[in-house]
Design goal:
By secondary structure, the chain is of the alpha+beta class. It is built from eleven helices and twelve strands. Helix content is 41%, strand content 24%. The radius of gyration is 21 Å and the shape is globular. Bound molecules: 2-deoxy-2-fluoro-alpha-D-galactopyranose.
Length: 386
């Protein structure tokens, strides 16, 4: 559905012309499971986006429709549900609830949500809905908030209303992405630096088409294991408040003092933080060989130490090795399925896509989806399409 079609559809449903807001999904080049440890990530926004069309209503209702997602929803703005319903609408409602809690005024509105970010693929479809909804809801009262604040409140909505204990990465990149660039984000200070992706390099995202059920519970277990690591390290060094504060030296000193599982988790996070900063330097100096090595190490660490990969992701990562134009690749996002991200020379991207699909299908019997992407701009207002 293009923008004029979205606007026409909205007009047919609600009888008025909407304004439209867009927020993208993301791929993370490196820095996985580091955001909730106050560490470093290096994601980029991609062209898949969620669009929210909105217009005011004269009453105090919030009416939410979508073509792709099931169910039509209607809420009383002055009596919003306090609990999630377990449907996609929670992402919009969570944002509305957090905005209210923070004292922002909300106006009655009709919303039409159009999502193009593949769902459950680890490309951050939830952050895209949240961010586009926040921009849309705020626009009706003329409230302008800095984009990093919008990212923070969307993350809060996901943590407190939706109930997923995610870090800040996805919402932040959906807000702040820049075409042609990845960015190195310090998830503690929220300082960031854009890192240009060298010309002639495509981001080839390979969807394994699986999402294993353990994903959510395992994410929460990993978080708890990291918290246990922090508790133990803080006993030995009082300056440790998050795994971000643990140096490689401190990690090594205590390699025998930690329970083996906790040591593996901490080891991944501490070294992944280092890899991510090294990767930003490698990318900005165009050293794709080194970047490729760091991405491979990251994948192995996620597979062996953090244990969030799965057979399909490993097959997809291995299938990329040796293909013409391939510079580096790894799983991206939370894990247990979803996608891999690959840096591939532009001229080889189409052949790469065909060959990796074939290899993956031969090993798993599953037909993957492969998307040839570039880094795109973050969230924006698209005005009132005619
Ligand atoms: C998911 C979460 F939403 C992010 O915050 C991040 O923790 C990621 O998994 C793992 O790096 O996408």
């Amino acid at each position: 559905m293009n923008l004029p079609e979205l606007a026409q559809h909205f007009e047919k449903l609600f009888g008025s012309r909407p304004r439209v807001y867009r927020a993208p999904g993301r791929v993370n080049l490196i820095g996985e499971h580091t955001d909730y440890n106050d560490g470093f990530v290096m994601p980029a926004a991609v062209a898949f986006s969620t669009y929210v069309a909105i217009a005011a209503r004269p009453d105090r209702k919030l009416v939410i429709h979508s073509e792709e997602f099931p169910g039509n929803f209607e809420f009383d703005l002055d009596n919003l549900p306090q609990r999630r319903s377990g449907t996609w609408c929670d992402y919009v409602l969570g944002v509305a609830t957090v905005l209210r809690q923070r004292g922002h005024k909300l106006a009655g509105a009709n919303l039409l949500v159009h999502g193009e970010v593949p769902i459950g693929a680890g490309l951050s479809s939830s952050a895209a809905i949240e961010v586009a909804s926040a921009l849309a809801l705020l626009s009706l009262t003329g409230t302008q908030l800095p984009l990093p604040d919008i990212a923070k409140l969307c993350r809060e909505a996901e943590n407190t209303f939706v109930g997923a204990r995610v870090g800040i990465m996805d919402q932040f990149v959906s807000c702040m992405g820049k075409a042609g660039h990845a960015f190195l984000l310090d998830c503690r200070s929220l300082e960031f630096k854009f890192v240009p992706i060298p010309p002639g390099i495509s981001l080839v995202v390979c969807n394994t088409m699986v999402k294993h059920d353990v994903a959510t519970s395992a994410y929460n277990t990993r978080r708890a294991e990291c918290e246990e690591g922090v508790r133990l390290f803080a006993q030995w060094d009082s300056s440790v408040h998050a795994l971000r504060d643990v140096s490689v030296d401190l990690l090594e000193q205590h390699s025998r003092d930690l329970p083996p599982t906790i040591w593996k988790r901490c080891s991944h996070v501490v070294r992944e933080n280092q890899r991510t900063q090294d990767a930003a330097r490698a990318l900005s100096s165009g050293d794709l060989k080194h970047l490729g090595e760091l991405m491979r190490d990251s994948h192995h660490s996620l597979r062996d130490l953090y244990e969030v990969s799965c057979r399909e992701l490993d097959v997809m990562v291995e299938a990329a090795e040796g293909l013409p134009g391939f510079c580096g690749g790894r799983m991206t996002g939370g894990g247990f399925g979803g996608c891999t991200v690959n840096l591939v020379r532009e001229g080889s991207a189409t052949d790469f896509a065909a060959q990796i699909s074939e290899r993956y299908q031969q090993s798993t019997g599953i037909i993957p989806h492969v998307y040839i992407c570039s880094a795109e701009d973050g969230a924006q207002a698209l005005g009132q399409p005619s």
